[in-house]
């Protein structure tokens, strides 16, 4: 019933099964086959060179393994002729590398002289056929052909890089902030009725804003725009009368209006702001996102310059509408992200398109290198602080109720923006880029993409580690172009990347032979191996589904990686005509693959039972981690950026009080001192800085304390400027530390301190101290003296009164007695008259 060849194969299968059962206990796991020599299982030249450090020998009828490690397999390396050895090296070259300049370019004048780096190189075109989806190109990144000297803040400007797969290449580049760099500031204001007092204050402070920014750069331009909301119910009252005057003294509602184009003639700013009319709407959120989108993408109408730091100040006291809210007004067409301003600067598609999404705003901000400053009131500050995490290069600041602190806020936020630099890139998902820098420190470079504490003219060196993680399936995407750029600066380092995904000998022409006799006429000889046509397989395309090998030795040899292996197909498949057919698992998602069935997608390391921690894919028994993750099970963050506190200039991990493990800080416990927080910068058991900060709070807020002298206060208190508030409320979520104090006047005062996103110290203190009633000693003394005198006088008067009354009473009684006194006739008692009369009592008148 069976042919001789079928009998041989059946016997071979039986023996294979017996051998597999005998050696199963001593057979190493499949992942160890490739772990000891990752090249051994690669069967084609492109598979070989896509494996790090592997080389391919394309010599005809080569007896050894064609894919090998040159440093280890020295015998193969020596045997293979050099002209047949394919071991491409990474190649780097600079196309444009103009010097970093110290001075900025102003219109009509040249840039500053001097700089860093090498002399300018020649420019060569880089041909790339990659599709638009394969890389992301930032708008406005092209270099002008003008020969005028402009500020150069990135070095180099364009490079070529040929890179093998999974072999990282470290490229050095530098950034330096130019002096007197141009600044474009566009003030976008909510002009709903509730912002009327803010508008008046801004018009009063317009000249002060110009003077403050002129101290930063001599090339400053200012613009102004306003917004309300879509003129559609339920955002605006559409009753005809309300469409004309929605509130007392209000103008008709509108979406967005560009009132003043960016201009160096800043004298008109205050007048235009003053004359701008407020309007009204119904709901609390405003249509600010519509205005932001138009202010960013309408570059010509707004007047954004190509080489300038672009600031958009967004001022409001309310929240914002975003994508999807337009459906409430029957607007379902998504925002197209294009410019729709008429000749008067009015947004024409306000009622036709939905609001932009946050991601759309972020995309346009990145493409146009815009820094947004959210200048919002205290009620909205937390909302916009969360928004900064989703809009690149944006900052949030608290605006006082009447915008009286707008100049200080803009200057403070500009200083925060200009004193730091953060590198980002537009690389596709197939490319992994890591950044390293020592920033302003002197120690070794650490993994970070952001440096703080920079000053004008300071040069910062970075290292970009570029790695191609996989070859795209589309061959046209093997050449890609991406940019490395500082956030908020319209300058780029363009990387023209060519992925070394295949060998020249696999292309038509060189060492390429169709229907080769070496392949039995049913295959193409490429790089020394056969690529069989459909329906054929085997080392020399000698097999087909209806034909089987007759050599028992060949049967084993073709299904084992080397002569030391005792089982076919890694023990996880059957050998048919010299080719492994891998087993199928019960779970269809679990796949065994590889020429020798040595690979699978389910035996990788797991974290808490999750394959590759769900942060990567399992390929051939090893986790291939997604960008930003590393470790055997992809459970660790590859970047240490999350362990460096924002604003740290020396790149110290975990504030020096912990260890960075898997991108998270594990804080130390030093005796009774315990550190906590995301960056181990909190210490509940440590002494607070209250006592240290009290003298500066006293002198800056109340002109009291040890530094009451203004010069001494300015000299010793440079770290912060306290913000005055009526009542100090502690924000626990913001890690604010409350402090209390009593000064020499026995007055009590409260303040809180905290560190913002850039690790800068911030202090809020109450405007007025709580003092006891003031005691006037002179008044008290004089009062006491007066009281004593008055009491004495009163007593004397009372005594005099009483004595007078008493004397008068006595005198009156004396007068009364004198008047009532009756005196007898005065006779001498010893005188006796000459006659005496006697009456006989018994005589009765008879």
From TrEMBL:
- Locate the transmembrane regions by residue number: 775-799
Coiled coil where?
Answer: none
Q: Where in the cell is it found?
A: Cell membrane
| Name of one Pfam family that matches | Integrin_b_cyt
**Primary residence:** membrane
Q: Which GO terms describe its biological process?
A: cell adhesion mediated by integrin; cell migration; cell-matrix adhesion; heterophilic cell-cell adhesion via plasma membrane cell adhesion molecules; integrin-mediated signaling pathway
GO CC, sorted alphabetically, is: cell surface; focal adhesion; integrin complex
Please report any disulfide bonds recorded for this protein chain, giving both cysteine positions: 45-54, 247-250, 298-339, 439-451, 471-739, 501-505, 527-569, 532-541, 543-559, 575-580, 577-612, 582-597, 599-604, 618-623, 620-654, 625-634, 636-643, 660-665, 662-713, 667-680, 683-686, 690-699, 696-771, 717-747
Span of the signal peptide? 1-25
Molecular-function GO term, any one: integrin binding
Domain Integrin beta subunit tail: from-to ranges: 690-776
Q: Which residues form the Integrin beta subunit VWA domain?
A: 44-503
Q: How does it sit in the membrane?
A: Single-pass type I membrane protein
Quick check: keyword Repeat in the entry? Answer: yes
Q: Which UniProt keywords apply?
A: Calcium, Cell adhesion, Cell membrane, Disulfide bond, EGF-like domain, Glycoprotein, Integrin, Magnesium, Membrane, Metal-binding, Phosphoprotein, Receptor, Repeat, Signal, Transmembrane, Transmembrane helix
InterPro entries assigned to the protein according to its UniProt record, in alphabetical order: EGF_integrin_1, EGF_integrin_2, Integrin_beta_N, Integrin_bsu, Integrin_bsu_cyt_dom, Integrin_bsu_tail, Integrin_bsu_tail_dom_sf, Integrin_bsu_VWA
- Extract the PROSITE patterns matched here: I_EGF_1, I_EGF_2
**Domain Integrin beta subunit cytoplasmic, first and last residues per copy:** 800-846
The record's family statement is: Belongs to the integrin beta chain family.
The protein in question is named Integrin beta
Q: What is the lineage of its organism?
A: Eukaryota, Metazoa, Ecdysozoa, Arthropoda, Hexapoda
